[in-house]
Amino acid sequence: MLSCKNNLFSQIMKRKKMKKNKKKIRKKTLIRSQDQILEKEESSEQEEGFSLKSSAPSHSHGVQPLGNLLLNPFSSNSRNTGLGNLRILTDELVLDVLGFLGGTHLGALSTVSKSFYVFCNHEPLWRNLVLENLKGSFSYNGSWKSTFVSAYRPSFAVSNLSSSGLKVRDFYSDYLFQSWLCASLEMKPEWLERENIVRRSGISVEEFVLNFEELNKPVLLEGSLENWAALEKWDRDYLIRMCGDVGFSVGPVEMKLEDYFRYSDGAIEERPLYLFDPKFAEKVPELGSDYEVPVYFKEDLFSILGNERPDYRWVIIGPAGSGSSFHIDPNSTSAWNAVIKGSKKWVLFPPDLVPPGVHPSPDGAEVACPVSIIEWFMNFYGATTKCKKRPIECVCKAGEVIFVPNGWWHLVINLEESIAITQNYVSRRNLLNVLDFLKRPNASELVSGTRDRVNLYDKFRSTIEVSFPGTIDQLALEAEEKKAQQKKLSFWESVTDAKVGAFKFSF
User: Locate the JmjC domain: which residues (predicted)?
Assistant: First the structure.
């Protein structure tokens, strides 16, 4: 029995390590119950509460935050009584254990007790089953459980499966409640009102390089996409017609656009699936011809690698609430992101300031952060008002482009269904940073977007030296001169030192 437990524990830990890209943490908080949120929404003190999406369903199982149990001393937590000996496990660990079960066993276990009913109907469990077993070949059917059941039991009536949830009395769990809350919340107005990014329209390339790229400073550029056919053409009908049965990268699977839009219309969840495809222009060349790189970002030294260059451009499509949690762009590159449809909220922190609630490993290979973007806003956005260095924030709308310098932390959330194109690039201003990154001792873990992580540095450097002889040495010399100049004393400091020396000498 002991060996069985040890084996299960090792499998759970192994499963945790295999999670893609980022480790996640969830901050435990005491949150108002759903009824209190709705009551607050109707009160005159709405600025203190949260607003729920009009399409958000009530919690299907009646889960309440743990704080409500503290205010109800005559109640017991049915979560514990229904789990039996497993009650000593955290909610996260219970769900990790259940993650090893298939759909049939989850369904059977849900009949054991009310507590198991709640846990076994946790939507992310069924989402994982759909994505792992059906890959991208599914038609979203109102909920992940209904989608799974309809795929394996087409004759089973699943129309009311997602709306016939059993209400469980006195079930308290911060983890499960907050998962529902994060999926159901609207962005608060105060999360959107701060706009402190520099905006520019019609500036020259020289001005962009001098005032922004050289200084590694973000800027939002207006009016630089006017010649893009995508601005006029890229709506749902056009994209579906042009792409047909082509599969696009959506999380761990590939989906047709028509299926993805069906999902994004119906899903209300904490972390909506995000379409993020690096090969869209190769898959559908017409899409690549509907846009061109803005004039400010034409120089891209990675392009000399040809087909061996790392992934560098993506089409991005997602519903409101989808996006990317805090990260630094790959391979120490800079980036630009152009919105074609919709709007995006951006929060950016400079390289020397890690965002609150974000915990990178010392080598930068892993980043622990809140499970969802909304959760970060709920628990950590307020702390940014106390930062010595305030983050740079903006809402980027259709027709606008944001420049994201290398090394900057950034979070992006779609405020409505949005379509965008982004590209990462290497210019002369950033070449030395990229080369230093590629030759780090743990580069094989850090480099992304290419199969040959080990040799990318040697390939890139040698190709640069052949294509642009002397460029690396010249840039290195200029960098050293710049450092030396910064170390020189100012005029006032030199005068002060001279006076101090003279005073000591006369004394």
Answer: 282-442
Rounded alpha-carbon distances, angstroms, from residue 150 to 54, 60, 258, 296, 309: 27, 20, 18, 50, 42
Secondary structure E strands in 71-214: 199-201
Q: What is the largest CA-CA distance in the chain?
A: 102
In the chain the first and final C-alpha atoms are separated, in Å, by: 85
Residue 53 domain-assigned (yes or no): yes
84 and 218: one domain?
no
Q: What is the domain range of residue 111?
A: 18-121+165-185
By residue count, the chain amounts to 507
Per-residue pLDDT at 500 exceeds 80: no
Is residue 174 a part of any domain in this protein? yes
Which pair of tokens denotes residue 68? Answer: 């409500």
Q: Return the number of other C-beta atoms located less than 10 Å from residue 496's C-beta.
A: 12
Q: Are residues 342 and 403 in the same domain?
A: yes
Residue 346, number of CB atoms within 10 A of its CB: 21
CA distance 115 to 120: 9
Strands 253-256 and 247-250: antiparallel
User: CA-CA distance, 17 to 21, in Å (whole number)?
Assistant: 10
The mean of the pLDDT values for the chain is: 85
Nearest CA to 299 out of 209, 405, 188, 415 is that of 209
C-beta atoms surrounding 159 within 10 Å:
12
Segment 338-384, tens digit of pLDDT: 999 999 999 999 999 999 999 988 877 788 888 799 999 999 999 99
Residues 99, 211 within the same domain:
no
Rounded to whole angstroms, how far apart are CA atoms 502 and 246?
79
